[in-house]
Design a protein that fits this description.
By secondary structure, the protein is of the alpha/beta class. It folds into two domains: 120 residues, Tetrapyrrole methylase, N-terminal domain (Cobalt-precorrin-4 Transmethylase, domain 1); 125 residues, 2-Layer Sandwich (Methyltransferase, Cobalt-precorrin-4 Transmethylase, Domain 2). The chain is built from seven helices and eleven strands. A six-stranded mixed beta sheet has the order 6-7-10-8-9-11, with helices on one face. A five-stranded parallel beta sheet has the order 3-2-4-1-5, sandwiched between helices. It is elongated and about 80 Å long. The termini are far apart. The mean pLDDT is 88.
Length: 255
């Protein structure tokens, strides 16, 4: 038998594949079956703040909280990417668990690019986004024949440059979904009025969608800036469909 090639001996092992998984909105059982199976096989799970604890309970894995909360960014984005690379290169099976869907108003694609640049393989597992799930859980359809035939999703999270979110102009058959907008509700509500949205546009705000403490609040665009903001996380639905809604197990109130 020939001796081993020294180059092969010195070569570091190939990194494992990092799985970037969408946890879905709220309840632990809203994750996909594929995401759940990969979680059971993980050695380390780097998770966001809005991941239901029951999804992590019982895992035979090290769970690292990398969540970013208002006023507290926890682990920086560069450090998260470095951590994923380090653990994958050590041979661990790594899961990056993000709330909702990894590619909807999050930094999932940034992490994919960083992993690929570092030569670490990555696979993305889609998740259910709160943009579509929160209205559904609140009993509100995003589209409805004769009322709404399209919807748009924007983030109202404050930008570093202070610029306003990409708010669309009003259309009578458009449903607007505003994510991460609880703290800035007066700002974007007033701006929508300036952009032609009628003051009496119906607004539904779903707080903690998919969680036991879910609540649905109803108001109008004109009244929203003066109202107390619902607890975050909060998804806002604006348009004709926001005035609809089936009875839901969560409490509903008017702001």
């Amino acid at each position: 038998m020939s001796p081993p090639d020294p180059a092969e001996i010195d070569r570091p092992p190939a990194p494992t594949t990092v799985h970037l998984i969408g946890a879905g909105p709220g309840a632990a059982d809203l994750v996909t079956v594929r995401g759940w199976r990969l979680l059971q096989q993980a050695d380390v799970v780097v998770h966001d703040a809005l991941v239901e604890g029951a999804l992590l309970a019982g895992l035979d894995a090290e769970c690292i909280d990398a969540g970013k909360r208002a006023g507290n960014h926890g682990i920086g984005q560069d450090a998260i990417c470095a951590l994923l690379c380090e653990r994958a290169r050590s041979g661990q099976r790594v899961v990056r668990l993000k709330g909702g869907d990894p590619f909807v108003l999050g930094r999932g694609f940034e992490e994919v690019l960083a992993l690929r640049a570092a030569g670490v393989p990555c696979e993305v597992v889609p998740g259910v986004s709160s943009a579509t799930a929160a209205p559904l859980l609140g009993g509100i359809p995003l589209t409805y024949r004769g009322l709404a035939d399209a919807f748009a999703v924007v983030s109202a999270h404050p930008r570093d440059d202070g610029d306003l979110p990409a708010l669309p102009a009003w259309h009578p058959r458009l449903t607007l979904i505003v994510l991460m907008g609880a703290a800035t509700l007066p700002v974007w509500a007033a701006e929508l009025c300036r952009r032609g949205w009628p003051p009496d546009t119906a607004v539904a705000l779903i707080s903690w969608a998919g969680w036991p403490q879910q609540r649905v609040y109803r108001t109008t665009l004109a009244a929203a800036p003066a109202a107390d903001a619902p607890p975050a996380p909060c998804v806002a639905v604006l348009g004709e469909v926001a005035a609809l809604g089936l009875p839901s197990p969560s409490a509903s109130a008017f702001l």
